[in-house]
Design a protein that fits this description.
- The protein has helices spanning 3-29, 56-64, 120-154; strands at 44-50, 84-91, 97-100, 112-115.
- By secondary structure, the chain is α+β, with helices and mostly antiparallel strands.
- It has one domain (3-31, 44-91, 118-154).
- The strands form two sheets. Strands 1-2 form a two-stranded antiparallel sheet. Strands 3-4 form a two-stranded antiparallel sheet.
- Helix 1 (3-29) packs antiparallel against helix 3 (120-154).
């Protein structure tokens, strides 16, 4: 695995976390939207998957050949994949909340309004979590950049 692979992997993580932040923000913005095209707004979630196509053993074998002192075990092909990618943005299947508000324009005959299945506490927790993960990927990328810079200084 090269230093540029490490930067690419961090970049995929940053992209995925940015998508999670965007979806959580959309959920918060629509927390009170009761009248959409298909009824009340439905909470969305981001599904992530690993960007590597091989198994862990295959990944380990491909990287082992580039480790000093490994005796060349494994094959370094230069096509090491890694990171994360967004596989889908899916709707949460939890039922909508029923709130008694007979004066609301979307209330049914009994006075209940079907509110979105968005919990602001959960969304804020998701925002904080994705923000911290984004920061961790930025730190990893900055560390890799520093390592590349030091390697360039050694080659002078």
């Amino acid at each position: 695995m090269s230093l540029f692979d490490a930067m690419r992997i961090s970049a995929t993580g940053m992209s995925a976390e940015r998508t999670r932040m965007d979806v959580a923000s959309e959920n918060l913005a629509n927390a009170n939207s009761t009248n959409g095209v298909n009824g009340p707004y439905r909470r969305k979630e981001v599904a992530l998957k690993a960007a590597s196509s091989g198994s862990f053993g295959a990944m380990l074998s491909s990287v082992a050949g580039s480790v000093p002192g490994s005796g060349g075990i494994g094959t370094q092909t230069g096509t090491t994949k890694g990171g994360v990618q967004v596989s889908a943005i899916v709707e949460d299947k939890t039922p909508n909340r029923k709130v008694y508000d007979p004066g609301h324009p979307d209330a049914d005959q009994q006075g209940y309004v079907s509110m979105p299945n968005v919990n602001p506490v959960v969304e804020m927790t998701d925002l904080i979590s994705s923000s911290r993960a984004y920061e961790a990927n930025v730190t990893a990328m900055q560390t890799t950049k520093t390592m590349i810079s030091r390697v360039m200084d050694l080659l002078k």
